[in-house]
């Protein structure tokens, strides 16, 4: 298996990963079709005379009682998102099923927490395939905080860039399970909405897709505070975001489909969504910054560089 892995290039392996994800999550299509039928959505559309229907109009036409509605409407709402902001803040189907939100559920169920951590770590192992192509992004950085990291990605980075001090920052109960530290790799527990340790750069892998725009801006502001507290680093700071960018290229239909399944998954688990480039840009603009660069490096995921922080600092200088 290992020798086969080396025969294949990163591109093929990321394609294979997208293919697998698509099949793993393809049950979502039939689930939301079932939900739509059970909710009577085809009849509602028919009764509406085939006219455009808004999400509130659709919801008020549904005949189900609220608890059932919450779970079903969340599944179906994505069909009717008019501007990519249709999810709203509702109890998530995950919460209806488990009585706790995703993070609290993880905190109270160590077995699940470990399993989720392992899944994330194995996903991050794929970074091994491309980290050499990313050299210019990390070269010259003295320190990096992997915000919401589980250690796997940072371990790869710390080996590839031995002069860069890597700090994995995650919630206390996650950091408590952290593997061994090394010379240039350590783990800190905390809440990114309250504090982010100081560094030259901040990595966010699969973090922002679980949050609404307002929260993403709050997190970026915490990065700004972390960089500004070290005046000698001003101008060097940047955010490196690894997440899905939905771009719907016709020739990448399978990739887009897999990305849209993740979009559904985020809605069920967090009431959030995957973003297209315009939606990412909106966050950066809200943060007062228009310069960003998107590189589709990781199969389903892209790497978005937002830099330099000096410009951001100037915007918030008052
Ligand atoms: C989808 S996982 C991504 C993990 C890792 N970055 C990766 O890609 O392998 C999101 C992570 O963010 C962490 N997280 C969520 N809220 C956080 C907070 N307020 N402060 C720090 N970490 C947080 C979670 O514990 C979880 O490990």
From TrEMBL:
Residue stretches making up the O-methyltransferase C-terminal domain: 90-290
Presence of the UniProt keyword Methyltransferase in the record: yes
Residues at the active site: 209 (proton acceptor)
Molecular function (Gene Ontology), one example: O-methyltransferase activity
UniProt signal peptide: none
Stretches assigned to the O-methyltransferase dimerisation domain: 22-68
The protein's name in its UniProt record: O-methyltransferase
Annotated InterPro entries: COMT-like (IPR016461), COMT_C (IPR001077), COMT_dimerisation (IPR012967), SAM-dependent_MTases_sf (IPR029063), WH-like_DNA-bd_sf (IPR036388), WH_DNA-bd_sf (IPR036390)
Taxonomy, superkingdom: Eukaryota
Biological process according to GO: methylation
């Amino acid at each position: 298996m290992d020798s086969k892995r080396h025969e294949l290039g990163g591109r093929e392996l990321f394609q294979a990963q997208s293919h697998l994800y698509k099949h793993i999550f393809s049950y979502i299509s039939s689930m939301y079709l079932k939900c739509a039928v059970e909710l009577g959505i085809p009849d509602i559309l028919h009764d509406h005379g085939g006219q455009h229907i808004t999400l509130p109009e659709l919801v008020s036409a549904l005949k189900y009682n609220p608890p059932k509605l919450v779970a079903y409407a969340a599944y179906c709402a994505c069909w009717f998102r008019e501007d990519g902001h249709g999810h709203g803040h509702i109890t998530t189907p995950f919460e209806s099923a488990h009585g706790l939100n995703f993070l609290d559920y993880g905190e109270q169920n160590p077995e699940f927490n470990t399993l989720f951590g392992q899944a994330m770590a194995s996903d991050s192992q794929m970074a091994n395939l491309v980290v050499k192509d990313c050299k210019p992004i990390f070269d010259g950085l003295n320190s990096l905080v992997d915000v919401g990291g589980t250690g796997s990605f940072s371990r790869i980075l710390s080996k590839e860039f031995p002069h860069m001090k890597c700090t994995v920052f995650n919630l206390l109960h996650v950091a408590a399970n952290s593997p061994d530290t090394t010379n240039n790799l350590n783990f800190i527990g905390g809440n990114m909405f309250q504090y982010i340790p100081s560094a030259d750069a901040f990595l966010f892998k699969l973090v922002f897709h679980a949050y609404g725009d307002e929260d993403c801006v709050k997190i970026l502001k915490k990065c700004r505070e972390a960089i500004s507290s070290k005046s000698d680093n001003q101008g060097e700071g940047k955010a490196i975001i690894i997440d899905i960018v939905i771009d719907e290229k016709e020739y990448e239909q399978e990739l887009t489909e897999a990305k849209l399944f993740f979009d559904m998954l985020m809605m069920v688990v967090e009431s959030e969504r995957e973003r297209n480039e315009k939606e990412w840009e909106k966050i950066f603009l809200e943060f007062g910054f228009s310069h960003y660069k998107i590189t589709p490096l990781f199969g389903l995921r892209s790497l978005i560089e937002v830099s330099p922080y000096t410009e951001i600092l100037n915007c918030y200088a008052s």
